[in-house]
Amino acid sequence: MRVALAGGSLLSRLESSSLAMHVRESVWLYPIVEIVHIAGFSILVGAVVLFDLRLLGFSKKLPVKECMRYLIFWARVSFAAVLSSGFILFIVDATGLASNPVFLLKLALIGAAILNAFFFQRFTLQSVDLWNAGQPSPPAAKLAGILSILFWIAVISCGRLIAYI
Predict the structure, then answer these.
(1) Which of 17, 27, 132, 145 has the fewest beta carbons under 10 Å from its own?
(2) Residue 159 and residue 136: Cα distance in Å, rounded?
(3) How much is the pLDDT for 3?
(4) Cβ-proximal residues to 119 (8 Å cutoff; 6+ apart), any chain
(5) SS3 string of the chain?
(6) pLDDT value at residue 6
(7) Which parts of the chain register pLDDT below 70?
(8) Is 20 left (phi over 0), alpha (psi -120 to 50) or beta?
């Protein structure tokens, strides 16, 4: 019970912070932050899906290492924009979002997508020299690509559904 009260108190403090109040009271600030969030997700998911398609066998002549070096850079930069804008959007309605099951599912799916990327980089990518260019990706890489695409589509879907549930 104490944890719930502390969490509720933290959520209330976030909602009453000067940043949250300023965003709520501004005619343009909330829409601008939301646009940054959506644009960031567009770049993030676009870069990730292009890389995942390479893992699934498209553009086999394109080296995986080069593809990753370029696309993952943009995914990371845009993830920073998504994280910061998402936090601002969260504090505007922290108590409402913290109790929204679709928002919580979105966070869990983001965590699953990050874990998928971590396991891919930690284990599957270790053998990339064997399948870097001109060779089919191993089954583990294809699975990581499929899971990644599914996770990110689900994250986007949850993001859209938050307002309706």
Answers:
(1) 27
(2) 34
(3) 41
(4) 144
(5) CHHHHHHHHHHHHHHCCHHHHHHHHCCCHHHHHHHHHHHHHHHHHHHHHHHHHHHCCCCCCCCHHHHHHHHHHHHHHHHHHHHHHHHHHHHHCHHHHHCCHHHHHHHHHHHHHHHHHHHHHHCHHHHHHHCCCCCCCCHHHHHHHHHHHHHHHHHHHHHHHHHHC
(6) 53
(7) 1-7
(8) alpha
Q: Which residues span the domain enclosing 134?
A: 2-164
The model's pTM is 0.92
Torsion of CA 142, 144, 146, 150, to 10 degrees: 180
Backbone angles phi, psi at 26, to 5 degrees: -80, 140
Q: Are 83 and 75 in contact (CB under 8 A)?
A: no
How many other CB atoms sit within 10 Å of the CB of residue 58?
11
Structural domains in the chain (count): 1
Residue with tokens 């899906």: 49
